[in-house]
Amino acid sequence: MILYPAIDLKDGKAVRLLRGEMEKATVFNDDPAAQARAFVEAGAEWLHLVDLNGAFAGRPVNAGAVEAILAACRGIPAQLGGGIRDMATIERWLGAGLARVILGTVAVEQPELVREAARAFPGKVAVGIDARAGRAATRGWAEETEVEATDLARRFEDAGVAAIIYTDIDRDGAMGGPNVAATAALARAVSIPVIAAGGVSSLDDLVALRDTGVIAGTISGRALYDGKLDLKAALAALAS
After folding, report:
1. Which residues is 126 bridged to in the sheet?
2. Does the annotation mark 151 as catalytic?
């Protein structure tokens, strides 16, 4: 199981939100590129980036910070979500060196764009499913839908997407542990690799996710910044 350290970008800084609320942002590093280097030096094999402002604006906002991270961590694959809602933006980011783009809002509103992008860029397009009470939320988690997360995932079974990033919004940044059962159920419902996000805060959480045998990866942010989860120790535990 791959552990993806998260760098969420707001106003050019590395922050963490509580349950996706922008007004509840805690700044952890004024230099996101330096934060990315620290994760890589600790052994991270992937980076997970989110343009929070972009998710609300519907277009890239923290492009400078993302580009600085890519320049500082050449050779380390990174995936990015937030504000990626057209083919031109997908092409731009992949051309800039991202290994994978994450499409969230458009997966609900423009599913054909996801399919088109997955055909054009095999292995480089993931679907982000952010859910409250099992239903997808869009546009920076500000708008709730009636679409069930599992139903949304199944729509892309034959699309060729590289992964599904499943976030339980109510767990995100709350340090209360991930929703292991819901994530595992989603992973069993589709053949697409599923990456868990939201609430991962301890080695026990990582082991619980790994031991389901069906979850391909997990994302952690606040726990790494707060020091409740040591990245080197976590990577060693997952490798053992």
Report:
1. 102, 163
2. no
Verify whether residue 8 is a known catalytic residue: yes
Could you tell me which of 192, 182, 183, 178 has the C-alpha nearest to residue 220? 178
Q: Which residues contact 220 (CB under 8 A, 6 or more apart)?
A: 3, 4, 5, 6, 200, 201, 206, 229, 234
Q: Which has the closest alpha carbon to 4: 56, 50, 66?
A: 50
Report angle CA 107, 132, 94 to the nearest 5 degrees: 35
Q: pLDDT tens digit string along 150-203?
A: 999 999 999 999 999 998 876 655 456 898 999 999 999 999 999 999 889 899
Catalytic residue among 130, 168, 172, 205: 130
All structural domains of the chain: 2-239 (3.20.20.70)
